[in-house]
Amino acid sequence: MSQPHADETEPEGAGDDRAPNTLRILSLGIAPALLERVRETTGASFVIAQFPALDVQLLAQVMPDIVLAPLLGQGFDILDLADRLSEMGYRGALHAVTPPLPDPDAVRREVTSHCEGVVFSLIVLDEQTPD
Description:
The protein is an alpha/beta fold and about 130 residues long. It is about 30% helix and about 25% strand. The strands form 2 sheets. It has a 5-stranded parallel β-sheet with strand order 2-1-3-6-7, covered by helices on one side. Strands 4-5 form a two-stranded antiparallel sheet.
């Protein structure tokens, strides 16, 4: 599989020849230790990219089942990502990783209002989860 962006990495098994039913996750700004835990528990394949590299070509190439990003990333937040995905016509799942929040339902409502057709959820980490 060709790599259109220099900062994209593709772990073993993440190409177009992935096994049937293998979950494909596009990860933007998630710590490697957390990605490894997700890989161990789900068997998912990952494509790792930076927010500025996210464009229609990358989305079409990766064809993610899930886009995974922090609620507040370096240089972007989940609303920036939701808006960009919506503009590109993405209709998959968007998961945001966050520490505990005072009102997670308010965050869910706000993000959902920015990305019609996208299934949004929060992954709330406890204090013991690696960043």
